[in-house]
Specification:
There is one protein chain. The protein is of the alpha/beta class and about 180 residues long. It contains seven helices and seven strands; from the N terminus they run H-H-H-E-E-H-E-E-E-H-E-H-E-H. The strands form two sheets. It has a five-stranded mixed sheet with strand order 2-1-5-6-7, sandwiched between helices. Helix 5 runs parallel beside helix 6.
């Protein structure tokens, strides 16, 4: 619909941002709904993830259907994004000394949108970085509830995904996401 309308309307409406702002409002409403579902998932990990934060994630197909859900259950376990991607049918593996998730099958997730309550990690800890697997799969959008305040992440995951041409939206339902981990 948007592409059809774009070709019919005067280009000046697009150059002034009028149409894009209207389109953005629709995305924001959808983004809030999906993010609140990710917040509810994250609550399942509360009190169980220390020293890590509680995080929830939802994967949405291009048609708007939720196809994957996940949360971070405990320190040392895969993060919420990995559980959600696997729930959506992605086949991912990691060896004992691997620094990157191996994507074995996830072609059906190309161009999907991922909603995650906390910025995807960009460092190797007990598990490889989540931002890299999102890049490798080819998701088109990542909507983040809040930037990770940890100094070893703090915007690096966002930068890496944007550098890979993924549309990254930050601070959707930020207050709800911050409340999840107010003491983290």
């Amino acid at each position: 619909w948007f592409d059809c309308v774009q070709g019919l309307l005067a280009p000046s409406l697009f150059s002034r941002g009028i149409i894009n702002r209207a389109r953005s409002r629709v995305f924001v409403q959808e983004d809030e709904v999906y993010m609140l579902q990710a917040v509810e998932l994250a609550k399942q990990g509360l009190g169980k993830t220390a020293p890590n934060p509680a995080v929830g994630c939802v994967v949405v197909a291009t048609n708007g259907t939720i196809i994957g859900r996940g949360f971070h259950p405990a320190a040392g376990e895969p993060h919420a994004e990995i559980f959600a991607l696997r729930d959506a049918g992605a086949q991912l593996s990691v060896g004992e000394n691997d620094t990157r998730w191996q994507v074995l099958d996830a072609a059906h997730l190309v161009n999907s949108t991922v909603y995650v309550t906390l910025e995807p990690c960009s460092h190797v800890g007990r598990t490889p970085p989540c931002c890299d697997v999102l890049i490798d799969i080819g998701v088109s959008r990542v909507v983040i509830g809040m930037k990770d305040p940890a100094p070893w992440v703090s915007g690096r995951g966002i930068e890496r995904m944007r550098a890979a041409n993924i549309s990254v939206i930050v601070d959707i339902e930020a207050a709800a996401c911050e409340q999840l981990n107010f003491d983290w």
